[in-house]
Description:
Layout: E1 4-5, H1 7-14, H2 21-40, E2 46-51, E3 56-66, E4 77-79, H3 80-86, E5 95-99, H4 107-134, E6 140-148, E7 152-156, E8 162-166, E9 181-192, E10 195-201, H5 205-215, H6 217-220, E11 224-232, E12 236-243, H7 250-255, H8 260-268, E13 273-278, H9 283-290, E14 298-302, E15 307-312, H10 314-321, H11 326-335, E16 338-343, H12 364-372, H13 378-382, H14 386-392, H15 397-411
Parallel strand pairs: 3-4, 12-13, 15-16
Antiparallel strand pairs: 1-3, 2-3, 3-5, 6-7, 6-9, 7-8, 9-10, 11-12, 14-15
Helix pairs in contact: 2-4, 5-8, 9-11
Amino acid sequence: MEKINLTESFAEFKEFKDIDRPTLMNILETVFRNMIIKRYGSDENFDIIINIDKGDLEVWRNREIVEDGEVEDENSQIAYSDAIKIEPDFEVGEEVSEAVKMLDFGRRAVLALRQNLISKVLELEKDNIFKNYKDRVGDIITGEVYQVWKRELLVLDDEGNELLLPKTEQIPNDYFKKGDSLRAVVSAVEMRNNKPIITLSRTSPVFLERLFEMEVPEIFDGLITIKNIVREPGERAKVAVESYDDRIDPVGACVGMKGSRIHGIVRELRNENIDVINYTNNTQLYISRALSPAKINSIKLDDESGRAEVYLNPDQVSLAIGKGGHNIKLAGKLTGYEIDVFRDQDEEHQDDVALDEFSDEIEGWIIDEFKAIGCDSARSVLELSVEDLVKRTDLEQETIEEIRNILKSEFE
Length: 412
């Protein structure tokens, strides 16, 4: 009995991931049967025995013994005189099984067979990777950085599958080099040119949500619900949480004793400031909490236009707006309202003048620079020193001094 030795090929097939043994056996048999059909016209009278572990395969052709001269189909019948050459005891009407030699197929057919096998298994492996990761969208993956490119990172998971982390999905302060371990959430899975493309993200709100689930058991168990998350990756995030159990303080549980739970999340997000607030159906209270750490005096809502006018003391305006306007922008996203900040004037500042009133003397883009740091009136600019204004805006010292002189003349 001669075996068709495909040890080298089988060794490769055994290493393929996510392919169970029955499926692999089925692929191998199908490919071999196609080769048999191409060579003999039919595979109905052939038996194929595959041993993946030993790396070999046996093909047996079964034919009926007929009288000499009565052979009508050479593939399914064999003459008596030929049959007794295989085994002298054979008789007409019996079935003879004969091993098919690899040489019978020809060298070219064998090479084509091997290529076909590899192609089929690779195709199946790609489909399995796609299906596996399609079910894992929204899950956190831990991987190793394998290649660093200008626009993206190539990351390998525990099984060696290739994942992509685009630059646009990285936190601005992220810095990774080859061999580093990283965590990210699976954001998208698609097939391109018959290849599964798995995209990761570290900027998605879902990534922050999964980190909270990992660090806060009450969220994982469903005792605390995350109602909404908004982020400016690497800068600030706001998380609205709610508990259906009055005995549980959702904010306290998320922050942990002395910030123990949230510190790990902050480190993972490159020191992103995270505000955890209590969710409420009271819109005014929700907006007030969303603008934390600023203290709000009053709020006027216009539900039709979706705008909220927030009034606070002059020293709270910059807190409400936040660095680069992140705080007020995120509060608006969290609550769904367009928030406008106004300062409550005390007696000392009754004669204050809005910066917009100086539009004839001061260019609009300069006024916008001051507004971005919470200075929307003349006195709010004059209350800050020249050094402080230089640090907090992109304006030159000379420009700031000139503006301050214009504003001062208003009150002289």
